[in-house]
Amino acid sequence: MPFDKLRANGWSESPANNRLRRFPSHHESTPTSAQHWCQESLSAHGIDALTGIIAAHTTKQQFAQGGVASIEKLTGTTWWQNRSPSVTVDRKTDGYLKVLNRALTQANSLIFIDPNLDPIRHNYREFHRLLTPLASRAVKTRIEIHRSLCRGDGPARTFPTETDWKASFAVLGNTLRSQGISAEIFFWDDFHERYLITDIIGISVPAGFDVSGKQNDWSTWGRLGREDKDKIQRLFDPAARLGSLKGRFSIGASV
Q1: Number of Cα atoms under 13 Å in the Cβ half of residue 9
Q2: Which one of 23, 73, 104, 122 has the largest count of C-beta atoms within 10 Å of its C-beta?
Q3: Global pTM?
């Protein structure tokens, strides 16, 4: 479910999809029944808020908490009805971090696609904050940043050299290096759409990853279907469109 936090009693899915999250036990003994697993989920809820817990009907009868839902009556549950494929976020870094928390803590691959992403521009000055939460992860995340080779629009646009672009990304690279994070930067023919593509979710980000100084400057992000997510990822795969790729280099740790 997009943007939702969900721990399900008895839920199973292929590990290859990276949709299951490890979480420490909150009881001394290992759960041995559906009731015990439901209680474990409720205990975890006190540490990291859950959207809901799906349980068998007989298990649900033992728990009065509204967050526990019977799988047989799931569609009538308020939190299930309130789930949405989109979310409206104020264009501030704190809002981005709140929405992206699950992806930043779980995804093994993060592909930021924004034709204007430029760390030295004032409106992108906080972009590094979207990456620094990755420093504490035991498994390092593959980070890619895709932007247009040109800077600006229309007749006034310019085409900085690789040296110019390396200078623009130098401060971000130093920040990432100090935290043991690396990223690869890709430069393409001019494009306009903006996305975040990960191995667990694809998100359309209409206004990109810059921040706004205006109060309540809202942007609506939407979850991509699997087919569209894969299509966008292929469009920014150097092996698939080598002729449109104009340059690339790495920044951060081990660079």
Answers
A1: 26
A2: 104
A3: 0.85
